[in-house]
Design a protein that fits this description.
Order of helices and strands: HHHEHEHEHHHHHHHHHEHHEH
Structural class: alpha/beta
Number of helices: 17
Radius of gyration: 22 Å
Distance between the termini: 52 Å
Helix content: 40-55%
Strand order of the largest sheet: 2-1-3-4-5
Shape: globular
Length: 389
């Protein structure tokens, strides 16, 4: 009883500290925030924080219109809470949200998707998955009490496609394999080990909570107070200013790549003229694994009772024309995305009307420019305030 009381008191104290500093840490990106759960759960408990999950777009092309900078001073009453880094996939985001669990119910969140998410080769996909894998988050998914058994079975089968991430966790590996097998016997084994899985998740949760607390305490100058500067957002003017900023950053080439990127990769890009084709592009969209993961992610969010907004950066039409992929072929991506998402009754913004805009993306890897982020900001602001259809 004394041990339980001590642990409980420590847990309450750590949560109190995390809740106190979560607004200050909201716009920042760092390891424990990405791979843990304490800060993410705290963020969903705050009505003026809007979690946004994505990949490399969250830590690239940082500038005044990037969401974490644009909303940093709460101009319209909220700040974004970005979670993710390079190579974060839909299956990884599903595990992150599983670690949030019941705190998701009734809450809003934003998911960033991009064409490159669905066109990677298997080797690259496995490397990215392993680099973003978290035992805590995976365990929370495997032993979730909120998700249906059928859903966990589908997720387990996908997670077992990456066996290297399970080598050092016998409990998680066994649970996933029994879930994936799907027989009465395997279900019996899964439920028999369920208490042990919950105990392991609890221990990992405590480790994460105290690691987060240590991160905060190691920064003695960290001030929990945040600057709040309400402002009237004039979106037409903001979008014009952001477009001008994007043009200034990409004025040394005709394809609209940011100058630094063009200086580094321009010669290689010049050699790519007509190297692509409509046929190859459309075939690249037929790999079902990433689309299945996106469907799983959205279904999981629905089972948790949360409300997501999906924003997808458009293809960089000027580059794709140069590369040899026509506007007609590019429509296959937007149509495929809609066909996957719309049956799940989720708000989707594709920005496909900006496909021919040379300045919406900074590169051929689907990273929004300052102009692109300004369009994201408007959609995010409208979503938070309930103004999207």
């Amino acid at each position: 009883m004394l041990f339980a009381a001590t642990v409980y008191s420590g847990d309450v104290y750590a949560r109190t500290v995390v809740d106190r500093y979560v607004h200050r840490l909201a716009p920042e990106l760092f390891r424990i925030k990405n791979l843990g759960s304490a800060l993410q759960r705290a963020a969903f408990r705050q009505p003026d924080l809007l979690p946004i999950y994505g990949s490399s777009e969250l830590d690239s092309s940082i500038g005044p219109y990037h969401a974490q900078e644009f909303f940093r001073t709460y101009p319209s009453g909220f700040q974004v809470f970005p979670v993710g880094t390079q190579g974060t996939t839909a299956l990884i985001i599903l595990q992150k949200l599983a670690a949030v669990g019941p705190d998701l119910r009734g809450k809003k969140l934003v998911l960033c998707v991009s064409p490159t998410l669905f066109r990677g080769d298997d080797r690259v996909r496995k490397n990215y998955y392993a680099g973003n894998f978290s035992r805590l988050q995976a365990s929370e998914l495997a032993f979730s009490s909120e998700l249906t058994l059928a859903f966990k079975q589908e997720a387990a089968r996908r997670m077992l496609e990456y066996p290297n991430t399970l080598e050092n966790d016998a409990v998680l590996r066994l649970a996933l394999s029994q879930l994936a097998r799907g027989s009465l016997t395997s279900y019996g084994i899964y439920y028999a080990m369920f208490p042990f899985g919950k105990l392991q998740s609890w221990v990992l949760h405590l480790e994460d909570l105290w690691e987060t607390l240590t991160y905060i305490e190691q920064q003695p100058d960290l001030d929990p107070a945040v600057l709040r500067r309400p402002a009237q957002l004039d979106w037409p003017s903001i979008l014009v200013q952001a477009e001008h900023e994007a043009q200034l950053r990409a004025d040394n080439n005709a394809l609209g790549f940011e100058n630094d990127y063009w200086d580094k990769y321009g010669r290689e890009i010049v050699r790519q003229r007509n190297n692509g084709s409509d046929r190859k592009f459309i075939e690249s969209l037929r790999d079902d694994s990433d689309w299945v993961d996106l469907q799983l992610l959205i279904r999981g969010i629905r089972e948790w009772g949360a409300e997501p907004l999906l924003v997808s950066v458009p293809l960089k039409g000027t580059y794709y024309d140069y590369w040899g992929v026509s506007p007609r072929a590019r429509q296959a991506y937007y149509q495929k995305l809609r066909s996957v998402v719309e049956p799940l009754d989720v708000t989707l913004v594709t920005f496909e009307g900006n496909d021919a805009d040379p300045y919406f993306n900074v590169d051929d890897r689907s990273h929004p420019s300052q102009e692109g982020w300004a369009h994201y900001d408007q959609a995010i602001d409208n979503f938070y305030h309930g103004r999207l259809p």
